[in-house]
Amino acid sequence: MKKTTKALTGLVAIAMAASIVQAGDANKIVVDGSTTVGPIAKAFAEYYMGKHPEVNITVSESGSGNGAKSLINAACDVATMSRPMKNSEKKAAQDAGVLVIEQIVAMDGIAVVVHPSNPLANLTIEQIRDIYSGKIKNWKDLGGPNLPIVGISRDTNSGTYESFETLVLKGAKIAGNVEYVGSNGAIRQRVLSTPAAVGYVGLAFIEGVKALKVNGIEVTPETVTSKKYPVARPLYMYTNGRPKQATPLCDFINLSATPEGKKIIEDTGFVPVK
User: Sign (positive/negative) of CA torsion 192, 65, 269, 56?
Assistant: First the structure.
């Protein structure tokens, strides 16, 4: 895809980015970023390439933070992120002549998950915070089995981690014995193999594990849409400038607004934007 010429600076660079002056292969789209948004991006790519075999779309899942860096460094055309881009990232983009355009493609609930054998059904936000900060160390203190809690977290480059930090931790520091893993799938596998574990994953990754109610609210597409579920967030795609109409990139980005795209989002386990 064509990219804004780096030699252009100031208002000229911004104007060029805004008008999407492009050069290169318009039939190649590179996507990088969130492991949460990854299933949507991959399903979109499969669907679009099935309709347009001349277009090549590659999807990588290096984390939301790395997706932002890739877009800023012109290493991808679409940054997928499970959190909004930070002001510092937007500033770095502006300094690089990148005009950041944000699109919400779906909604997600961050599910707090345990092993299926765990008898607990509900935790409050405060209890989850106390588990991850190390104040609550054993399941028996919550009415569960007499087992030391094994806390599993996403890595700090993850948008899911940052959303969890904002919505649940609210300034509390994660305890030193909490384990960090690199993807939603890795958390699910760790929880599945560990009866005393607790983790948090996107809504599309709860198969096989037990998703607890939070503040008495079950995580479902309906409670995410209604905003009753307290740990919900949008999912994003970012581009450098607004894609030119009638191009593969524009069609790909706008899939989430079509009936076909909404069905894909539902099939991957997420919630379409109404």
Answer: negative
